[in-house]
DNA sequence: TTTACTGTTGCAGT
DNA sequence: AACTGCAACAGTAA
């Protein structure tokens, strides 16, 4: 599911459902998803209260008493809350038993998701080590810093926006949407963009991610029913998944190529490489 | 039946 | 140092 708008939607759901609850027990069925090892992980979490659920980029942060539980959903991670019996499912990997006989379940078909417990004091260092860029808001996302980093890089703009160092939260869907909205070819090198183009990308990143949060994310490919999975942003996409359809601006057929190993949708007439 | 694809990130290799 | 390709995994579609 998760780019920033989907993660934010899940965060809002979790905030309502688990804030103020105490983690009674933790069961991890896939040990290599958690850091440090399972025993320490479970031992630290048991007895802690979930005081708050925050988000940074695509990371979910459960604020506990002395620690933070940092959860990344990667490609297919989901949270489900059960109030009685938990059904059998081979993709349920982590179980958090909460105080009111409710169980928070982490489901992940591909087992790419990660959990890390860190000390509250180490949060800053954690995200610095990840080289995580600013949040995509007018307050946090500095235009001059963005321009300076672009001018220093010979990466293709799409790959550059995906690497989370310029700004956090973009993934494959919203990068394609941002570049279409900005009239930029995904393979254009960062340093060859004009300042006006950089400003446009900066503006569109903020606008599109804000809109996607308001639409509660995009639910494409399968699934429903998890926390916050009833998004409607898929109805507002202009290029992602539109291969073979006509560009809404110029009627040219949308093309799909590979850029840095990722499927990439663009309009070959609107988005010209300079 | 194979092969390619999938909303991500980190690491090995150049 | 900066960048690329691939692996982690499981399912689906062609």
Write down the secondary-structure element order: HEEHEEEEEEEHHHHHEE
Number of strands: 11
By oligomeric state, this entry counts as: single chain
Describe the global form.
globular
Low-confidence stretches: none
Classify the secondary structure makeup into a structural class.
alpha+beta
The mean pLDDT is 95
- Please give the share of residues in helix: 25-40%
- Quickly count the helices: 7
Distance between the ends: 33 Å
Rg, please?
A: 20 Å
The strand line-up of the biggest sheet is 2-9-5-4-3
The proportion of residues in beta strands is 15-25%
Largest sheet: 5 strands, mixed
Task: Provide an overview of this structure.
- The chain has 274 residues and is of the alpha+beta class.
- 27% of the residues lie in helices and 21% in strands.
- The chain contains 7 helices and 11 strands.
- It starts with a helix and ends in an 8-residue tail after the last strand.
- The chain binds a DNA duplex (14 and 14 nucleotides) through residues 1-3, 6, 32, 58, 72-76, 91, 108-114, 130, 153-155, 159, 162-164, 171-174, 217-218, 220-222, 240, 260-261, 263.
In short:
The chain is an alpha+beta fold and 274 residues long.
Keywords:
alpha+beta, DNA-binding, about 270 residues, globular, five-stranded mixed β-sheet
Topology:
Blueprint: H1 4-18, E1 23-28, E2 34-35, H2 38-45, E3 52-56, E4 59-63, E5 67-72, E6 78-82, E7 92-98, E8 103-107, E9 114-119, H3 123-129, H4 143-151, H5 157-162, H6 172-181, H7 195-214, E10 255-259, E11 262-266
Helix pairs in contact: 1-7, 4-7, 6-7
This protein binds a DNA duplex (14 and 14 nucleotides) through helix 6.
